[in-house]
Amino acid sequence: MKAPEELRSHRWFGGDELRTFSHRARSRQLGYNPEEHLGKPVIGILNTWSDINPCHMHLRERAEQVKRGVWQAGGFPLEFPVATLSETYQKPTPMLYRNLLAMETEEILRSYPIDGAVLMGGCDKTTPALLMGAASAGLPAIFVPAGPMLRGHWRNEVLGSGTDMWKYWDDKRAGLIGDAEMSELERGLARSPGHCMTMGTASTMTSAAEVLGMTLPGAASIPAVDSAHHRMAAASGARIVGMVWEDLTITQVLDKRAYSDAITTVLALGGSTNAVIHLIAMAGRSGIPVSLADFDALARRVPVLANIRPGGDWLMEDFYYAGGLPGLLSRLTDLLHTERPTVTGRTLGENLETAAVHDDDVIRPRDNPVAAEGGVAVLHGNLAPSGAVIKHIAAEPRLLTHTGPAVVFEDYPDLKKRIDDPSITADSVLVLRGSGPLGGPGMPEYGMLPIPAHLLEQGVRDMVRISDARMSGTSYGACVLHVAPESHVGGPLALVRDGDLITLDVPSRTLRLDVSDEELARRRASWVAPPPRFERGYGALYSEHITQADEGCDFDFLARAGTNPEPDAR
User: Which ranges carry the Dihydroxy-acid/6-phosphogluconate dehydratase N-terminal domain (predicted)?
Assistant: First the structure.
């Protein structure tokens, strides 16, 4: 156990020097009495709340509950507002700013008198960003997930945010429903605080945070408005104080075993393809190499047990009542490293001792899985030499082996202009380029390309679609994503022409452009790189240092080995 004078914050407040005197004087200016904070762990609460982030609109209140827990455990809480990254509103995509929040997190934890951190997030990019920054900082840290929103409702149907939005928007385009129905859906799709209640990126990444050992057991699946969420927030505040005294740092929790278990769990959840990029980046911050090959190897032996939309039938609220993530993990213990540490101070296996499943349809037993293999497949071939991914459990099975002529869109505006071209058939392969990490910019969620309206009217609901973009974890369909290298840097996607035959073969994990090497060489010789998108500002920094999708889309100078020196607090 640490002594008070060993606390990191003691360097700011302890001793008899000019600077420590100044720091104590300024804390009096803030209205704090000496006995409130001196000799106590200072806990930084990094809160991604904002007025424009509906997923996090309750986190201002939850921060007060975290503070309550910190006070009760003998710590001193300080709240820091950090970038909110609202998936709903931030354009072109909050993925452009994930690394900015990671940088902000690392530098706040490094530069202020903080002994331990509570990380509050949940909307898609906030979870990996906060954990990436905290991993680089290396202090004791615990994650408080925002929690999923309640089920949506429309007439007699239960709605899942995102997933049912895409479904009913296609119905509208097909002429099956009109403006009156859409107005009702608009009011019923998202009806409480919290992130998407499907197994989208938010629920996937908060679940990953839990299995990594960074949350209290069961935290990820608690609905945002449930009173259990209040209690979890307070208990997390209390626990981080204990972690500081025990010197239990994030570095001790996030080891190689933890990332392997996170990949296993994401696959068993049928989780978002975005987790592939985020976990590679997160592991890189921990100095642990993780690649697409790790996902593919585990996917071949990990069954999908979570029967949750978009790949299943239920929603996160149902998952919580069925036993939540601890229930699912209790059915995977032979595939997990149960002896590793977690923020509780106990091992993963010890955390699961009382876990149980209460509904075998929501969380399937191993002998009755949703799918025999994990929900993500990694593809390679001459169209994706560095890899691509597909969430094949959310696609129509007939399309998992398919050859068809390419219909190429240069960028998203071109797609919007020409997607309803009547010459496009159900066998066509829709190709979108110019949407990767550099081309997007920020790799926007354009990957679930819309089905042409005339095909929707004929009853077509899925087609093979290929891009260097991402797609929302709430999306579905035969969408090949994250094609690397991206077209903007001259990847093979830049060389595809209308009418070229493309073969997708998920069972063999291949994606092939059926064009000779000689012809591709001729096309490459005439390819001209597009001009830079940014001339200054953060966009220029991003463009100069972003890595490709298969490398996690981190900044190269953040992902590399090395440490920052502790600041001189004098």
Answer: 40-351
Give the residue ranges of the chain where pLDDT is below 70. 569-570
- The dihedrals phi and psi of 469, each to the nearest 5 degrees, come to -90, 180
* Helix (H) / strand (E) containing 123: none
* Alpha carbon distance 125, 100 (integer Å): 11
> How far apart (Å, rounded) are the C-alpha atoms in residues 567 and 304?
46
Residue the block writes with tokens 């998992």: 400
Residue 437: cis peptide before it, omega within 30 degrees of 0: no
Distance CA 323, CA 37 (A): 39
> What is the spatial distance between Cα 279 and Cα 269, in angstroms, rounded to a whole number?
15
Find out whether 78 and 42 touch, Cβ atoms under 8 Å.
yes
**Distant-in-sequence, close-in-space partners of 193: CB < 8 Å, separation ≥ 6:** 54, 55, 56, 57, 58, 146, 149, 224, 225
Phi, psi dihedral angles at 284 (to 5 degrees): -60, -35
Report the distance separating Cα 345 and Cα 352, nearest Å: 13
Q: What does the radius of gyration of the chain's CA atoms come to, in whole angstroms?
A: 24
Cis check: omega of the bond before 385, within 30 degrees of 0: no
Cα–Cα distance for residue pair 403/501, rounded to 1 Å: 7
Report pLDDT for 564.
Answer: 86
Report CA 219 to chain centroid distance, whole Å: 16
Helix and strand totals (H; E) in the chain? 22, 14
Structure tokens at 88: 């709903």
Q: Spell out the alpha helix ranges (H) of 174-323.
A: 179-188, 201-211, 227-246, 250-253, 256-268, 274-285, 292-299, 316-321
**pLDDT at residue number 568:** 81
pLDDT of residue 563: 82
- How far is it, in rounded angstroms, from Cα 210 to Cα 500? 44
**pTM above threshold 0.70:** yes
Q: Do the beta carbons of residue 142 and residue 77 sit within 8 Å?
A: no
By residue count, the chain amounts to: 570
